[in-house]
Design a protein that fits this description.
- It contains twelve helices and two strands.
- It is mainly α and about 325 residues long.
- Strands 1-2 form a two-stranded antiparallel ribbon.
- Strand 1 (about 70) and strand 2 (about 75-80) form a beta hairpin.
């Protein structure tokens, strides 16, 4: 009788399968509709920015050609309804030049995302390497890197960008034999990336301090693993969660910084379109041609908001203390 009961319990038992951290994260993301919507919007903007150069090459959009026949009157304001919005000019045209505003906004999105992604890669790479070395080595090495982090954080990023822009951009133009626009992009990538790594290095250092005492690190050391193998084979695979979260949160910050610098006249300059330069020009027409300010401003707002929501969603999904039910 006891054997029959045991066999029935065994037959009716439900198999319990473990889930990997990625499976848990994916299930949380799939339940978070807000993050999914934001992710879809962010992917849409990324794809749009990626294909914008192709659309320009195929003459489907034209951010540079003026259309003087579409503007006129006092101040050469756009003719027609709401800043010249038509079936061929979805966001109207620029005052004075008559250039297609939709084309310039999309091309500006390409510039902003390119600068933001490259600057984020610089920050993530520097922060990860320095954070791992500092947290693992300890002692004088940790003290030295901690003081370097404090030193870099003491500089105001925006003021340094403004102060160094003219000198560094001219040096890059002569050294790389490029025009001002590529030199300005390289300058912003280097400076934004340089000032973006210290905070992330502290995060990685804190994670490494808790990981380096774990059994798998001790086992690797006992088997004779070298320092660099411990850094990048044992520790780095366990740091993908903070790297992913910080990357998604750093992207909107870089996009907003690039737009702010362009608005202040330090970033990308006309005629190359960027969010900052477009908004800088549009504020002079805010009262007489509101669409010229509204369309680029709303686009920038949606881009930054989407990436911020994606970063928040990933942070919640990767939180080991979050509700798993």
């Amino acid at each position: 009788m006891a054997e029959t009961t045991l066999e029935g319990a065994r037959d009716g038992a439900v198999a319990i399968e473990g889930r990997t951290p990625w499976q848990i994260t994916r299930s949380r993301l799939l339940r978070d509709r807000g993050t999914l919507v934001a992710m879809g919007v962010a992917i849409f903007f990324v794809i749009l920015a990626a294909i914008a150069p192709l659309l320009t090459a195929w003459k489907l959009i034209d951010p540079y050609s003026p259309h003087t026949g579409l503007v006129g009157g006092l101040g050469s304001l756009p003719l027609g309804f709401w800043g010249g919005v038509t079936s061929t000019h979805w966001m109207g045209v620029e005052p004075g030049t008559g250039r297609d505003l939709f084309s310039r906004v999309i091309s500006g999105l390409t510039v902003s995302l390119l600068v933001a992604v490259c600057a984020a890669l610089v920050s993530i790479t520097l922060g990860t390497i320095i954070g791992i070395i500092s947290g693992t080595a300890g002692g004088r090495v940790d003290w030295l890197f901690s003081r370097v982090i404090d030193f870099v954080l003491s500089f105001p990023q925006t003021l340094m960008l403004i102060a160094l822009s003219t000198i560094v951009i001219d040096i890059l133009k002569e050294a790389l034999h490029v025009e001002r626009t590529p030199a300005s992009m390289i300058f912003m990538i280097l400076v934004m990336g340089f000032f973006g790594w210290p905070g992330f290095a502290r995060i990685i250092r804190g994670q490494v301090l808790s990981l380096k005492e774990r059994e798998f690190v001790e086992a690797a050391r006992s088997l004779g693993a070298g320092r660099w193998r411990i850094y990048f084979k044992e520790l780095l695979p366990h740091l993908w969660a903070p790297i992913l979260v910080y990357s998604t949160l750093l992207m909107p910050q870089n996009i907003a910084t690039e737009a702010a610098l362009g608005f202040l006249g330090v970033g990308i300059q006309a005629p190359t379109p960027s969010f900052g330069s477009i908004l800088n020009d549009s504020v002079h027409y805010a009262s007489v041609d509101p669409p010229y300010f509204i369309f680029p401003g709303v686009t920038l707002f949606l881009v930054v908001l989407a990436f911020n929501l994606v970063g928040d969603g990933f942070r919640d999904a990767l939180d080991p203390k979050a509700d798993r039910q």
